[in-house]
């Protein structure tokens, strides 16, 4: 029988662990404060920011909210980031992506102090991850690894295929699977015969950004399938990059959408907020 990997349940466990850690830190006089900056009023971003605030309230982390108009300048945003870098009360900084087209995500991310980079996107954080050193890990990829571990799915020695090579998910997911001793292949839009590669995978991570892209004929019998995508189908129902109904009988374990990888991202963000406060 196929194992349904319950990201909602595992994320709740992690948030409870973080809540315990926050209480311990508070008993020693240490407060944790996350500053969240949103530029514009993108509906999806607004939902994500609201969920992050709720998670902060649950685990006992103070959250500060900064909302800039869509027409704000890049200089104005970077100036705010630099002020928050200098603010000793603020232990973590998060700039909600995507940003308006007139702003450089690279410049803004680079402006965040690596010690307050709770998203794990700063080049210093990425470098530490590449070298296997301690540092901030990007939330969705680290959440994927945590999902596997807490579902008793071993990565060591497994053939792992990541479909997608974004800096936010695909590349770091590949590096973290490699860190866990997986044998990793990254497939992407220029990959030839992609189906032949995905069918080798013991663990298949799909972050391609195309709804229902992976069907049963892309996976081998008994594969573990992790779906990072989230979309609305023609009937306005949520779906992922994987055709869940098609693959669920062939996979040994699979994440649903919603309720799989998504909740893990915010749970791992809360964990990063604690780690940042210790810096």
How would you describe this protein?
With 279 residues, this protein is an alpha/beta fold. The chain has two domains: 29-113, Rossmann fold (3-Layer(aba) Sandwich); 139-262, Rossmann fold (3-Layer(aba) Sandwich), CATH 3.40.50. Helix content is 41%, strand content 16%. It is built from ten helices and eleven strands. The protein has helices at residues 7-27, 43-59, 74-86, 105-111, 123-131, 139-150, 170-179, 194-198, 244-247, 262-277, and strands at residues 3-4, 33-39, 62-68, 92-95, 159-163, 183-187, 203-206, 224-227, 231-232, 238-239, 253-254. The strands form three sheets. The chain has a six-stranded parallel beta sheet with strand order 1-11-8-7-5-6. It has a three-stranded parallel beta sheet with strand order 3-2-4, with helices on both faces. It has a two-stranded antiparallel ribbon with strand order 9-10. Helix 2 crosses helix 10 and helix 6 crosses helix 7 (170-179). The longest helix has 21 residues, at 7-27. The model has no long low-confidence stretch (mean pLDDT 96).
């Amino acid at each position: 029988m196929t194992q349904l990997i319950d990201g909602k349940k595992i994320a709740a466990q992690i948030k409870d662990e973080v809540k315990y850690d926050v209480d311990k830190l508070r008993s020693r006089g240490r407060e944790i404060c996350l500053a969240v900056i949103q530029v514009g009023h993108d509906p999806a971003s607004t939902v994500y920011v609201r969920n992050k605030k709720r998670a902060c309230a649950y685990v006992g982390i103070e959250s500060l909210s900064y909302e800039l108009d869509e027409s704000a300048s890049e200089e104005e945003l970077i100036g705010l980031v630099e002020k928050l870098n200098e603010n000793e009360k603020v232990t973590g900084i998060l700039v909600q992506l995507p940003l308006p087209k007139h702003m450089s995500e690279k410049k803004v991310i680079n402006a965040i102090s690596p010690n307050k980079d709770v998203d794990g996107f700063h080049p210093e954080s990425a470098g530490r991850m590449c070298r296997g050193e301690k540092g901030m890990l990007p939330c969705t990829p680290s959440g994927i690894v945590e999902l596997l571990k807490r579902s008793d799915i071993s990565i060591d020695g497994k053939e792992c295929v990541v479909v997608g090579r974004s800096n936010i998910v695909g590349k770091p997911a590949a590096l973290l699977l490699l860190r866990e001793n997986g044998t990793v292949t990254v497939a992407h839009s220029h990959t030839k015969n992609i189906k032949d590669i995905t069918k080798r995978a013991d663990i298949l991570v799909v972050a391609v950004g195309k709804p229902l892209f992976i069907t049963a004929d892309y996976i081998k019998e008994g594969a573990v399938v992790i779906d990072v995508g989230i979309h609305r189908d023609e009937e306005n129902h949520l779906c992922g990059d994987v055709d869940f109904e098609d693959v669920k009988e062939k996979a040994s374990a699979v994440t649903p959408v919603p309720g799989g990888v998504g909740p893990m991202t915010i749970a791992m963000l809360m964990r990063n907020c604690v780690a940042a406060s210790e810096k």
